[in-house]
Amino acid sequence: MKGTVLHGPRDVRFEAVEVPSILKPTDAIIRVAATCVCGSDLWPYRGHWPTPEPVRMGHEYCGTVVEVGDAVTKVKPGQFVIGSFFSSDMTCPICLSGYPSSCVDREQVGAAQAGMMRVPLADGTLVATPGTPPAAMIPDLLTLSDVMGTGWFAAEAAEVAPGKTVVVVGDGAVGLLAVLSAKLKDAGRIIVMSRHEPRQNLARAFGATDVVEERGDAAVARVKEMTGGLGADSVLECVGTQEAMMQAIRSCRRGGHVSFVGVPHEVKIDGQELFFSHVHLHGGPAPVRRYLPELIDRVWNGEIHPGKVFDLELPIEDVAEGYRAMDERRAIKVLLRP
Ligand SMILES: [Zn+2]
Hints:
Layout: E1 2-8, E2 11-16, E3 28-36, H1 42-45, E4 55-56, E5 61-68, E6 80-82, H2 93-96, E7 116-119, H3 122-125, E8 127-128, H4 138-143, H5 147-157, E9 165-169, H6 173-184, E10 189-193, H7 197-206, E11 210-212, H8 216-226, E12 232-237, H9 242-251, E13 252-260, H10 271-277, E14 280-283, H11 288-300, E15 312-315, H12 319-327, E16 334-337
Parallel strand pairs: 9-10, 9-12, 10-11, 12-13, 13-14, 15-16
Antiparallel strand pairs: 1-2, 1-4, 3-5, 3-7, 3-16, 5-6, 6-8
The protein binds zinc ion (ZN).
The site of zinc ion has 8 residues, from helix 2.
């Protein structure tokens, strides 16, 4: 079997790897139908997270169960399933409180950019679709493994509600699906910060009403201008940089809600500025598993097509080209088919 391995900065190879097997009785093995390259994969790819040893890549997946461990009772071979990037038992107090991505028993689910993969805590982690999906639905379902669930969490954590004015910082796949999520929650006005025309167009298709091309303080000034000098009710930070975080906090009105779902890199927030900003701040690794049943329903019914964020599809053998295309921003998000 072959899988995706990162050997060092910008050195991704599709090469021989060990065939996954049941290591714990709660594991499942799935045959991957589709996987993809995540914005967060680009951090180690660019050398920002040093990887002294070669590492297996990929944490977004959907596919068919081929084998389960002895303790697995709900998930069965033959089912088409989707899971999150963290495994979760769905029984611990943290899972029950709605945060399965911080499950006390969680393991990172990795090595998804391959033909087969192991999923820990299968009964809690995986959700089966009502049946075998048609091929055309697979990109939509794949987004539920991470980016759509993360965009949805961005909207929930920033308390997007009917009629509210929403700002989305970031036009990557998560930002675009945060726009779609805000639309599904009936936001009144959805302002997306983007300076790339194809991404602006997709944001508009997903429900954005306004585009702000400025950055930093100029972007904040634009949002203030559009909101009677006050700032937006809900601001969704979907990038993870210092500039994006401050743009988000400063674009929010006093007493408004800011969510942050991009993995932060060297982000520092001044305590006094945060104090006087008077915003609610809520973020973290999205509890994607919590949203799977509802979002699977919405895809299954044909209500939403989050898979439109995939603008490049490659056979998984060409995974290195997929990373290059995302690194160079030639592609929003790359779907890989084993
Ligand atoms: Zn748990």
